[in-house]
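Consortium newsletter contribution from the modelling node. Members have asked for a concrete example of what our holo predictions look like. Here is one, prepared for the magnesium ion complex that several groups have been discussing at recent meetings.
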Amino acid sequence: MENSGSNPLEKRLQERLEKILFTREEICSRIADMGEAITNEYSGQPLTVVTILQGGALFMADLIREIHLPLKADSVSVESYDGTESTGNVTFLQNRMPKLDGRHVILLDDILDTGRTLSAIRRRFLTECSPLSVKIAVLLSKQIERAESVEADYVGFEVGNEFVVGYGLDYNGEYRNLPLIGVLKPEFITVRILFFSLLRDITGQEEMEIQLPEQTLSISQLLDNLFTRYEGLKEWDQKLLVAVNCEYASRNEIVQSGDEVAIMPPVQGG
Ligand code: 5GP
Ligand code: MG
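And here is the predicted structure:
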């Protein structure tokens, strides 16, 4: 393959890819185009580029070197929870907001998915930081219906609704250093299931990993899957308590690759 990794780690990571969507060369050339468009548009203006960590770090590093203008660079760090709430929930991991008053801002992220992250950050910039304007640049844009009405002004590539890794995008914290963007083989996309208390006796184990048949599935689908493996679980069905990444979850909550799902018997007594 043309893009086979040049070192053992890269090779190992690439062997876990089902397909490569964009090679390093394609990414670099697209970012150069984006940099040129931004250079033309912001010439003579006070520009600050703000990236979202961690995913947007590599994109930032490459993009700002293709913007041939004086500029300032800053970052924000957020954590987003993809719960069932339609508003989503984006927590800022820092107290200090970037200094943006009197500046045109381009906000960067690796990928625009539901739009919650970018829309929450943009809203906060506009209400608290008095920028002259805020535009959005993303390396990738997923072709899905957004939860928030936010679109990017500069887009590197459109991608379908699949889970991609590489070039800053992680799966469980790994793969960010892959120089290309690809899709993981399904056998590497799993959720971890933890059983508690007497459920350990029923299932004979404390934890397991299961492969996701689709990109995502609901808790009730996940439980159905477990009931076919462990018949003894089924009688508990509606009484089981389920938490996804340490937060209690309802039956229609969606689990995604990399999630940790804890399954507990109902709380006894008072
Ligand atoms: P949004 O708030 O738009 O739903 O999500 C944006 C964030 O979700 C991105 O910054 C990224 O961290 C993560 N994300 C969304 N889709 C993908 C994907 O396909 N792969 C990876 N690795 N992260 C994703
Ligand atoms: Mg991210």
